[in-house]
Amino acid sequence: MQLGCFSVSLAVNDLDKSKDFYEKLGFEVFAGDPSHGFLIMKNGDTNIGLFQGMFENNILTFNPGWDQNAKSVSSFDDVRALHKKLQSEGIEIIQDAITGEQGPASFSVIDPDGNQILIDQHV
After folding, report:
1. Per-residue pLDDT, 61
2. With left for phi above 0 and alpha for psi between -120 and 50, is residue 54 left, alpha or beta?
3. Can you tell me the distance from the alpha carbon of 15 to that of 24, in angstroms, rounded to the nearest whole number?
């Protein structure tokens, strides 16, 4: 199962303070828009998302179809196939935004310890 680009999406209280903190750890802004309440930051192959006011808890995020630099890859497991596979394994889907036969779509699951995992395909 190929889940794609991995990042930790952090629910932050103050986007500017969090940005400053992670810059001190060597992260640089890679994408995002502070006026929309989020930044994606990168340190080598490590990605973190800083999200102010979008969700309550931190989320593990996978982006099928992308590498760690948010570049499209030629071969990947589509989010719809991942959705079906996890359902067939008995994993409960808690949020579902699957539409169409291809293209962007997403769903979420919760691991046994209560951590949310977002599978979010952009391609």
Report:
1. 97
2. alpha
3. 14
Task: Fold for 5-121, please state it.
Answer: 2,3-Dihydroxybiphenyl 1,2-Dioxygenase; domain 1 (3.10.180)
C-alpha atoms less than 13 angstroms from C-alpha of 48 in its C-beta half-sphere: 16
pLDDT digits over 90-119, tens only?
999 999 999 889 999 999 999 999 999 999
- Say how far residue 116 (Cα) sits from the centre of its chain: 10
User: In degrees to the nearest 10, what's the CA dihedral of 74, 80, 82, 86?
Assistant: 180
Residue burial 66-97, b: 16+ Cβ < 10 Å; e: rest: beeebeeeeebbbbbebbeebeeeeeeeeeee
Q: Residue 106 pairs with which residues in a beta bridge?
A: 97, 120
pLDDT score of 115: 96
Pairing verdict, β 93-97 and 105-110: antiparallel
**pTM of the full structure:** 0.93
Query: Which residue has 């691991």 as its token pair?
Result: 111
